[in-house]
Design goal:
The chain has helices at 5-15, 66-75, 99-110, 192-199, 209-218, 225-238, 243-257, 264-285; strands spanning 20-23, 26-28, 34-36, 80-84, 89-93, 118-120, 126-130, 152-155, 160-162, 175-176, 220-221, 258-259. By secondary structure, it is α+β, with helices and mostly antiparallel strands.
């Protein structure tokens, strides 16, 4: 085994108890620019989506098994590293969408963030790591859509981030902040004010099309399966998809994308419950008693 920087970092993360999996990497094109190893000239997420040859189920293939990680990153030396979130919560600060200013305003209101792990991203932003709160599930959220503020994304249960040593399309690599390296800095708990904002249901908050695409393609893990099945069922029924078709679609999605899948009877029960509620909603809307 020849230990590359990518393999070294992947094993380091495993040593911290974090699960990793291979992402597409970046390679030089004939013109000298960097392109995604997926080969698509129109790739929307270069170097950030799963490598199907080694991780056919994407995030669900994430592991803490050092032998598997060695095999993956020895075989695919250009592969970037995906790190599953949930055991850690990551605040993704994107300056291109006002993340720096949003964080400045929040810190002015609630005080500075505690000392914790930080990664400088290839895109010029930061990933700030926190311990999740006990007994409260923190899910993914984007910007101000049920999250914190513009330019501040949260990666929690069912999500992942690109890990250090990975190569960005800009040509820069993701690197641990010198003053916030996990070998020298403790991982801080999620601040109370942030937990309150993220755990509180957002009234009227609608999921974006990209959020639904992410849910459909990446699936969910144990702990958020029932909620995902309920939300997906409601989404389809509100768009007047036939209930029988909804049942079949959600059953198929559960088998393909939930890790591990719910029992079929659990899905049937959830779909039937949401269908009854949707029928009552329509009757009330139409004045039917």
């Amino acid at each position: 085994m020849i230990e590359t920087p990518r393999l070294h970092e992947a094993l380091r993360l495993v040593g911290y108890g974090l699960s990793v999996f291979p992402l597409q990497g970046m390679r030089a094109s004939p013109s000298g620019t960097l392109v995604c190893t997926c080969g698509s000239p129109k790739c929307e997420h270069p170097g950030k989506h799963p490598l199907p040859a080694l991780a056919p189920n994407g995030l669900k293939n994430a592991t803490t098994c050092a032998d598997t990680v060695e095999r993956w990153f020895s075989k695919a030396r250009l592969a970037n590293i995906g790190m599953a979130t949930g055991p850690v919560i990551v605040l993704d600060v994107d300056p291109r969408h006002g993340g720096d200013e949003s964080l400045h305003q929040l810190e002015a209101a609630y005080g500075p963030l505690p000392l914790t792990w930080r990664v400088l991203t290839g895109g010029g932003g930061e990933h700030i790591f926190f311990l999740p709160p006990d007994g409260i599930e923190i899910r993914n959220s984007a910007g101000d859509r049920g999250g914190l503020a513009p330019g501040l994304d949260i990666r929690g249960v069912g999500g992942y981030v690109v890990a250090p040593s990975s190569l960005h399309v800009s040509g820069r690599t993701y690197e641990w902040s010198v003053d916030h390296h996990p070998d020298e800095t403790p991982l801080a708990p999620l601040p109370d004010w942030m937990m309150a904002a993220l755990a509180r249901p957002q009234a009227g908050a609608a999921r974006s099309a990209s959020d639904w695409r992410q849910l459909i393609s990446e699936g969910v893990t144990n702990g958020s399966r029932n909620d995902a099945v309920t939300r997906l069922t409601g989404h389809l029924l509100r768009r007047f998809v036939d209930p029988t078709m909804v049942h079949e679609l959600v059953q198929a999605w559960n088998l393909a994308r939930c890790a591990p899948p719910l029992q079929p009877e659990e899905v049937t029960k959830a779909v039937a419950s949401i269908a009854r509620k949707e029928l009552k909603r329509r009757e009330a809307r139409d004045g039917i008693r």
